[in-house]
């Protein structure tokens, strides 16, 4: 069994200490929320000593705070992943999926510069970040897309294979069913994002297992 990283296949024993849910880069502008009028002026600049407390309280109300794919953010990511490596880190599982603007070339660059393995995911994030075409995709096509990305190469970067499914959000039940079907077929790892409803994790696991997905470690898998 091999793990597909953005720089190629490696043995599981070479992964080292692994963070299973990180985002090195993503488009998050859809999540902007207007701050209360009385404190709106606090959000007009980047971080300052005067406004950092307000941004902590209302993180989605700072346009500066929710940009996670500009040069400033990328510079911080190179630094942080470098520190992760220095402190004994081995691998980062990158959970950015369709709708959040996955950036595989950047993951490759981070991996090359830091020596940390990066595993890219496949699948779709929540409905709020999808366009009309994506929302109309059939279960079969969701499945086929993940199959292609896991076994042949990613649609936006064909020489890189996705290494797992995720993070899959409950934007449509068919996305979860497709994830269950692909897991049954390939035995790959899965990461779900249940969003805010406390009942969602239970419904996700029900739909996923009904579609054939396994919830154990699936040691007898093919990947
Ligand atoms: Zn995430």
Automatic annotation (TrEMBL):
<dbReference type="InterPro" id="IPR032466">
    <property type="entry name" value="Metal_Hydrolase"/>
</dbReference>
<dbReference type="GO" id="GO:0016788">
    <property type="term" value="F:hydrolase activity, acting on ester bonds"/>
</dbReference>
<feature type="modified residue" description="N6-carboxylysine">
    <location>
        <position position="161"/>
    </location>
</feature>
<keyword id="KW-0479">Metal-binding</keyword>
<dbReference type="InterPro" id="IPR017947">
    <property type="entry name" value="AryldialkylPase_Zn-BS"/>
</dbReference>
<keyword id="KW-0378">Hydrolase</keyword>
<dbReference type="Pfam" id="PF02126">
    <property type="entry name" value="PTE"/>
</dbReference>
<protein>
    <recommendedName>
        <fullName>Phosphotriesterase-related protein</fullName>
    </recommendedName>
</protein>
<dbReference type="GO" id="GO:0008270">
    <property type="term" value="F:zinc ion binding"/>
</dbReference>
<dbReference type="InterPro" id="IPR001559">
    <property type="entry name" value="Phosphotriesterase"/>
</dbReference>
<comment type="similarity">
    <text>Belongs to the metallo-dependent hydrolases superfamily. Phosphotriesterase family.</text>
</comment>
């Amino acid at each position: 069994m091999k793990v597909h990283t953005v720089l190629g296949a490696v043995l599981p024993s070479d992964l080292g200490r692994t963070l299973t849910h990180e985002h090195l880069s993503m488009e998050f502008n859809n999540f902007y929320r207007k701050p209360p009028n009385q404190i709106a002026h606090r959000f007009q600049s980047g971080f300052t000593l005067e406004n950092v407390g307000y941004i902590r309280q209302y993180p989605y109300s700072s346009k500066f705070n929710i940009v996670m794919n500009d040069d400033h953010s990328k510079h911080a990511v190179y630094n942080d992943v470098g520190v992760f490596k220095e402190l004994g880190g081995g691998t980062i599982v990158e959970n950015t999926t369709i709708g959040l603007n996955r950036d595989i070339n950047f993951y490759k660059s981070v991996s090359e510069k830091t020596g940390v393995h990066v595993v890219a995911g496949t699948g779709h994030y929540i409905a709020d970040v999808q366009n009309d075409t994506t929302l109309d995709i059939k279960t079969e096509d969701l499945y086929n897309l993940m199959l292609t990305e896991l076994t042949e190469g990613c649609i936006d970067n064909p020489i890189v294979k996705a290494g797992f499914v995720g993070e899959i959000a409950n934007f449509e039940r068919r996305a979860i069913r497709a994830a269950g079907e692909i897991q049954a077929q390939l035995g790959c790892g899965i990461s779900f994002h249940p969003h805010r409803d406390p009942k969602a994790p239970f419904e996700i696991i029900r739909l996923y297992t009904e579609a054939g997905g396994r919830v154990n470690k699936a040691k007898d898998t093919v990947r």
